[in-house]
Amino acid sequence: MRAAAFLYPWDVIGDPDAPGRLAALGVRQATLASAYHSTRALTPRHPRHRIVTARHAAVLYPPDPARWARRTLRPYAQDWVAGPDSFGAATRALADAGLEVHSWVVLAHNSRLGADHPSAVVRNAYGDPYPWAPCVARPEVRAYLVTLAAEAAVRPGARGTELESCGWYGLAHLHAHDKTAGVPLPGAAQYLMSVCFCPVCAEGYRELGVPAGELRGAVVRAMEPLWAGGPAPAGTGGRAGEWAAVEALLGAEPAGVLRTWRDRAARTLQRAVVRAVRDAAPDGFRVLLHADPAAHRCGANAGVDPADVLAHADGVVLPCTGDAAARADVLAPFADRPAAATVAANLTVVSGLGGSPHTLAADARHAAALGANALRLYHAGLASDDDLTAVREALDALA
């Protein structure tokens, strides 16, 4: 199985040993961030710093002024990594160490964009805006995401790309000083709190035959018992069980209207983004989506239709951290993938983030038995020395 590790440019810039250290793990590819959301990241081996604070979502290369001229929504520049093109500099250093570089592009996750353009974001059934979540049904957001994908993915030196958040973002968000866990919300409730009722989405629901006010009322009524501490509806477990619980909370017809509108918006965005990247890229450039096989799921691993997504993308990167049942739930829908498609199992190898680097070999073998043909390791720059030693030993065993 081909293994790749995620990396930030600031893990490489200023640390001449970083490329060789990554190559020594046994990976063949670095998946390097070129457009990323705000974060505070540990750099445990860097000779000049230990913490990097990316204050807002930004591109890590110089954006083309002509491409963005007269655009209302446009990418933000960064000033926390030295040099005019940190992605380019890191790419050259990694390539010199024999590593193939693919760009890592975060799309519909941008808190600064939402703060500057509040009309462009998801609004829940209570009218609350989610600044971190641009509404992917809105024309101006779709135009921004398609343009950003083509520019951020096809950077000099990159041989492919992995597109994160290419779909709906919702309630779940690693926010500073978060205080949202007071009422536990299962998957179905997370979905209901992620449904958008901005004017564009409201018009979409109306065109499908149900007034937005009626749907909004149904969502609010469905959530009231949960706010009071009542039990969540019983489901059958897994992703299918989540959607059954949504239908139990809302009713089949309202749930179907929401799903039709949201699936259509996500699917057509994904196709448009992949097409834009292909049009900008050289032959042989691989385009993968960070994805979840349940179309109703929101977030970094955006929900997709497994039967549709591999008709236009070269592959998917799937969240496979967890136990055997969790891996089976996410990988099984891709069992009939085309022979040329990449189905990459994304395994967290940072112990402090809930990963299990010491079981990586066994977990990777199990993922391969379920149909995965590639590995993604999250995240080589964040991991401790002990974690990286376990990764190297596991990749040696797998080889």
Describe the structure.
With 399 residues, the chain is of the alpha/beta class. The protein is 39% helix and 18% strand. The strands form three sheets. It has an eight-stranded parallel barrel, surrounded by five helices. Helix 2 (18-24) crosses helix 4, helix 6 packs parallel to helix 11 and helix 10 (238-250) crosses helix 11. The chain is globular, with a radius of gyration of 21 Å.
Topology of helices and strands:
Layout: E1 2-7, H1 9-12, H2 18-24, E2 29-36, E3 39-42, E4 51-54, E5 58-59, H3 65-68, H4 86-96, E6 100-106, H5 111-116, E7 121-123, E8 129-134, H6 139-153, E9 158-164, H7 187-192, H8 199-207, H9 212-227, H10 238-250, H11 252-280, E10 286-292, E11 302-303, H12 306-309, E12 315-319, H13 324-331, E13 342-348, H14 360-369, E14 374-378, H15 385-398
Parallel strand pairs: 1-2, 1-14, 2-6, 6-9, 9-10, 10-11, 10-12, 12-13, 13-14
Antiparallel strand pairs: 2-5, 3-4, 7-8
